[in-house]
Amino acid sequence: MDYQTICAFLYREARYLDDRQWDKWLTCYAKEAEYWMPCWDDNDQLTEDPQSQVSLIYYPNRNGLEDRVFRIETERSSASTPEPRTNHMLSNIEVLETRENEVDVCYNFHTLSYRYRTTDHYFGTIYVTLGQDGSDLKIKKKKVVLKNDYIRQVIDIYHI
After folding, report:
1. Residue 133: which domain range?
2. Within 10 Å of residue 3's Cβ, how many Cβ atoms?
3. Quick check: 56 and 64 in contact, CB under 8 A?
4. Whose CA is closest to 33, among 64, 5, 7?
5. Cβ contacts of 35 within 8 Å, gap of 6 or more
6. Distance separating alpha carbons of residues 64 and 117, to the nearest angstrom
7. What is the mean pLDDT of the chain?
8. Total of domains in the chain
9. Global confidence as pTM
10. In 10 A of CB 28, how many CB atoms?
11. What average pLDDT does this structure show over 126-144?
12. Tens of pLDDT along 73-130?
């Protein structure tokens, strides 16, 4: 897994969200992929355990993401109707650790979201573990640290 391949994969995942290509976006995730966005607690510290503490989003595997996409696609999500237009920007992509078939990566994101004639900003840092699945990369673990967590609407997968 070279740096250029990692960057191309992360950019592609973000583009799938912006283009609302939900099925292609899901293929970026391994079946066992954990997807977690912890909360900031009253002491301005991130929660550390999604099993016992509050999280903004937590799915222990890809099934949760698949259910979320199903709700968006079938208009069973009032938070996503109408769907916002988004634009994801990634920066400071850094490889933290490399193992035989996995790599830990950290990067910053800034997402613009337009809905009801209002533009909202979401920004933070994402930590992912990418695994090699044949010739493809898959996200095995994703932790999203949303830095502007005081928001006026429901946060969803396409905001980050």
Report:
1. 3-159
2. 12
3. no
4. 64
5. 29, 57, 58, 59, 62, 64, 65, 142, 144, 157
6. 30
7. 91
8. 1
9. 0.92
10. 23
11. 95
12. 886 655 666 778 999 999 999 999 999 999 999 999 999 999 888 899 999 999 999 9
